[in-house]
Design a protein that fits this description.
2 domains, 10 helices
């Protein structure tokens, strides 16, 4: 009887240790799960191959803008905004400017809001991936950069003037 009681206690201890992550595996670290925003950035759609939509670059930009709205609404997500900036490496060379236009060509009245500033910040990250000679050839991008230069927001004006050599 005593032996059976001891075995039951040992099984209970082993179950508790396995559940709590202690005991035999003292070097085992608890699993760190990614944040909600990190998961969302990971599953952003491709900018060029997406069989479910006609314009994958627009779908990418739309999903990014939805995440920007969530970042604006929540201080904890805003602290992780760098994850979205990192996602601006996703668009391949031919998709960079279309995505930059979709993100950066918002209404001027948004330039003074956090949402508008975050949009411009992402668009600026994309535009900075393109050489100035290519920017000079794209009239739509030049128009957006001129719009930025005339913005009521000092931050947005600075973003526009950063590309001054591309837009006279």
């Amino acid at each position: 009887m005593n032996h059976e009681h001891l075995q039951v206690n040992l099984v209970g201890i082993q179950v508790r240790n396995a559940r709590d992550g202690v005991g035999e595996h003292l070097d085992r670290q608890p699993v760190v799960l990614p944040s909600w925003l990190e998961l969302q950035v990971t599953i952003l759609p491709s900018t060029k191959v997406n069989p479910f939509v006609e314009e994958p670059d627009k779908e990418f930009a739309l999903r990014v803008l939805q995440l920007v709205e969530r970042c604006e609404a929540g201080p904890t997500l805003l602290a992780e905004f760098k994850l979205l900036e990192g996602a601006m490496k996703i668009p391949a060379r031919l998709e960079i400017l279309p995505c930059a236009l979709l993100l950066g060509d918002g209404p001027i009245h948004e330039h003074t809001s956090l949402y508008g500033t975050l949009r411009i910040q992402l668009a600026q990250t994309l535009v900075s991936r393109v050489d100035s000679a290519e920017l000079e050839l794209n009239d739509e991008v030049k128009a957006v950069l001129r719009k930025w230069k005339a913005s009521p927001s000092e931050y947005v004006r600075g973003a526009g003037w950063r590309f001054d050599d591309a837009v006279p």
